[in-house]
């Protein structure tokens, strides 16, 4: 019998986005049991070395890697797969090198540009003198995922003196500036398969009239705070690209190229913005995105009529 260890990070801060890993663990656990695998759950916490030695000692055939942080820091997401890689233990999801690059948004964007993949222009914090005064920009954290650190008050134009002073005081090591693409937002999930990666039905984020006079962004509140207006007024919708095969084909080509260029495995989600002319810009590539039952990835899998067991099995079969 195949032995699977489901590995996730110890809960440190009890924030909404952090607790979500427990819902993912439950989903994977149920699916693995239904598939007939011997399944256990283990966590990594303060004692990373000994926690992972315990994983190694349990002699798993595969580790289903759900770690999203180390010691509460999302930017250290690659630590567990780095050690698993060193221990030569098979693990699921995006491999170590790809996870490091896709987690660092600036590194990812530099690789996109090198490979001819479309992404919005970006700048270091100390390059504000290069900004076009007629354009709008957004400050983003370099390392954080899951919309952590994405806030409306970090969207600005160079003429906003007070905001510019605040932005110029930020650290180049933790933040960068990206041109704000004020258009449609499309989330595209991809799942590994026996014939290569499969693009699941794309979902569009629909911003209600609540955003008529506000920047259209999926910030932290819109993603996690169910009581906020931002959450209630952003909704996922499938099928919106069916009447535009040219854009759909272009996005499919971009996603397949991303999978190859970034050496992706298992399951990912690519977030794209379309400008007013329909031209796509990759916002980010999410390696090992959330797979809780109410996540965007699982919604796309549901739309494709894939069971939880099918999704989990395909991820396991594409393990590193």
UniProtKB/TrEMBL annotation:
Residues 109-317 form the ATP-grasp domain. Pfam families: Dala_Dala_lig_C (PF07478). The keyword Lipid biosynthesis does not apply. It comes from the Bacteria. Keywords: ATP-binding, Ligase, Nucleotide-binding. One of its GO terms (molecular function) is ATP binding. The keyword Nucleotide-binding applies. PROSITE patterns: ATP_GRASP (PS50975). PANTHER family: D-ALANINE--D-ALANINE LIGASE, D-ALANINE--D-ALANINE LIGASE B. Belongs to the D-alanine--D-alanine ligase family. This is ATP-grasp domain-containing protein.
């Amino acid at each position: 019998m195949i032995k699977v260890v489901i590995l996730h990070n110890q809960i440190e801060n009890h924030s909404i986005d952090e607790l979500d890993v427990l819902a993912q663990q439950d989903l994977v656990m149920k699916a693995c049991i239904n598939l007939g695998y011997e399944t256990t759950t283990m966590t990594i916490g303060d004692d990373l070395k000994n926690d992972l030695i315990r994983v190694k000692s349990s002699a798993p055939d595969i580790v289903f890697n759900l770690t999203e942080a180390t010691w509460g820091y999302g930017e250290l997401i690659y630590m567990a797969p780095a050690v698993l890689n060193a221990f030569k233990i098979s693990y699921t999801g995006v491999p170590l090198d790809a996870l490091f690059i896709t987690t660092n948004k600036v590194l990812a964007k530099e690789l996109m540009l090198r490979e001819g993949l479309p992404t919005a222009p970006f700048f270091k914090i100390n390059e504000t003198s290069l900004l076009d005064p007629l354009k709008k920009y957004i400050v983003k954290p370099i390392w954080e995922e899951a919309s952590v650190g994405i806030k409306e008050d970090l969207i600005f134009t160079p003429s906003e003196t007070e905001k510019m002073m605040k932005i110029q005081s930020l650290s180049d090591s933790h933040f960068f500036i990206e041109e704000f693409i004020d258009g449609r937002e499309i989330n595209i999930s991809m799942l590994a398969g026996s014939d290569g990666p499969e693009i699941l039905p794309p979902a569009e984020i629909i911003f209600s009239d609540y955003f008529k006079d506000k920047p259209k962004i999926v910030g932290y509140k819109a993603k996690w705070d169910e009581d906020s207006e931002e959450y209630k007024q952003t909704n996922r919708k499938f099928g919106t690209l069916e009447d535009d095969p040219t854009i759909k084909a272009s996005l499919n080509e971009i996603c397949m190229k991303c999978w190859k260029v970034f050496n992706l495995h298992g399951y990912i989600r690519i977030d794209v913005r379309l400008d007013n002319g329909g031209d796509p810009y990759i916002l980010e590539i999410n390696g090992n995105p959330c797979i809780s039952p109410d996540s965007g990835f699982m919604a796309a899998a549901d739309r494709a009529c894939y069971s939880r067991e099918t999704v989990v099995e395909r991820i396991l079969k594409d393990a590193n």
